[in-house]
Every structure is written in C-alpha cells, then in structure tokens.
Amino acid sequence: MDLDLKGRRALVTGSSSGIGEAIVRMLAQEGAQVVVHGRNRERAEAVAKAIGAAGVAIGELAEDGGAQAVHAEAVAALGGNVEILINNAGGNSEGNSAKKPHEIDAADFLSNYKANTLGAVQLCQLCIPDMIGAKFGRIVNVSSAVAMQPNNVGADYSAAKAALNNYTVSLAGSLRNVGVTANILTPGIIMVDGLMRFGREKFGNPDASFEEICEKFGEAKVFDIPPVGRVGKPEELAMVACMLASPRSGFITGANYRVDGGQSRGLN
Question: Could you tell me which Pfam families the record lists for this protein (predicted)?
C-alpha cells in the first residue's frame, strides 16, 4: 500500500539510534524528506548519510532554547515547514529506574518532565501553526507502557510519559477541522541495540540471534515476555509510526496505538 509519504517533510527526534532510527529509516524508504535528530552530530550524520536524509538537527531538547534550535535547523534542512513531527526523544534519568517514588527528588522529576514532555510540547507549539496554515500535519508522540501501567519504581519517568499522553489527547481534541492529527505510539519491550548487547553479554554469546536472545530472556525471567512470545523489533514500531504519519490516516486522532505484543491487554 502506498502511504502517500513521498516528498513529505518529517522531523523525528531521537532518531540517531534505536526506535527513532528505525522510524526515520522507514519514512525515508517511503520517500519522505527526513531530518535526523540527536545529541551526537557524528552519529546523526552517519544515519542521515545512510538513508539519504535532508539533513540533521543537533540539540538537547530538555535544555532552554533546545526545541527552538532543533526546529530552526530542521526547517532549514527541509527547505520548508515540518509536516510530520514524531517526538521520540526522551528517556529515564540515570539511576532512577530503581528508585522508589519517595526516593526521587524534585529535580529528577523536573528533569524527566523536561526530557519526555516539555521538549515534545515545545516542538508541537513550533510546528503546529505552519501545519494549520498548510491544512496538513501529523504529530506522533512516542510514549511508554508505564504511562498507563506504572511500576513501583521510576515514577518520575512514568509521570512524564502520562503527561505526554494527556497532552496529546487534549491537543487532538483542540485541532478541529484543520487537517492536523495528533496520536500516541506506545511501545512495549523492544529489542533495541542496547538490549541486544545486554542479552548477548548476560548469556555469554556475542553472536546470539534475536530469536535466541528472546528465548533466553524468557527462560531467565529477566522480564515478562509478551503474549506473542517475544519482544518487539524497532521496525514494528516504525511501521505503525509511518501509518500514523500518512496523509491516509486523517480519520485517526487522539488515539493510543500500543505496539507491545499484547502486554497491556485490557487497558483502556
């Protein structure tokens, strides 16, 4: 199926590795003009060169003025306004994934909010006026399963992602009859490069395949394996992101697409 993405201008944040890289690669394969964003210019430029991207935008979105700088660099590289914005950048504050809620201080909550919510919000604010003017825009905010089903640790990250979810739904409801949609993409456990390296090191097999690592994770009960019997692949997230970015998805907005192998079944 042709997603009608050829020539569409897209910015994917956090796209120099992992899920973001898979998304920007697939958008490029579909013919979109893409900008690769990251904090490391060398790594971002390597991805951009490999996929024939329009350019790169380098910057820390959690810092004051970071979103404005990234947006300006993206618009310059694309030669026009951003039509597709996929907010994938974020992550947990180092060391907080093991802390209980009452052990996390206010500074860490604020840091996680800036990294996972505020940067995305600011980019939406920067991109939406041009999207409305063009009567077309697609916003996809990448969330996390813990936004809906938080763990007993890492509450600052869970709260930040929950805030992003709520913002996206409010945004979708406010963008009435202007051709702009806003949706949430929620990954489950995804076999990004870091998780693959962890599995190979943990089980002492540097050449282990994806299937072998999934099997070992299940046997060792490292985490709960989803009902489909394995963890996800970055390209499976990318497929859904491209669908939501497509002009053909104009009747989808305010939705949460959970790509998690059934792990969050039963959640609304």
Answer: adh_short
Task: Catalytic residue, from 113, 157, 167, 257: name it.
Answer: 157
Decide if 116 contacts 131 (C-beta within 8 A). no
The domains of the chain, with CATH numbers, are 9-190+232-259 (3.40.50.720), 191-231 (no CATH)
Number of Cβ within a 10 Å radius of residue 129 = 11
| Residue 266 in this model has a pLDDT that exceeds 60 | no
Dihedral angle over CA of 100, 103, 104, 105, nearest 10: 170
Q: Which two three-digit tokens encode residue 156?
A: 């600052």
Residue 253 burial (CB < 10 Å; 0-12/13-18/19+)? Answer: buried
In terms of Cα–Cα distance, which of 99, 228, 227 is closest to 152?
A: 99
pLDDT at residue 29 greater than cutoff 60: yes
CA dihedral 225, 231, 236, 240 (to 10 degrees): 30
Told to judge if 257 belongs to the known catalytic residues of this protein, a careful annotator would answer no
Q: How far apart are CA 192 and CA 84, in angstroms?
A: 23
pLDDT at 13 over 80: yes
Task: Give the amino acid at 54.
Answer: A
Residue carrying structure tokens 């936004």: 147
The pLDDT tens digits for 182-203 are 999 999 888 887 777 877 887 7
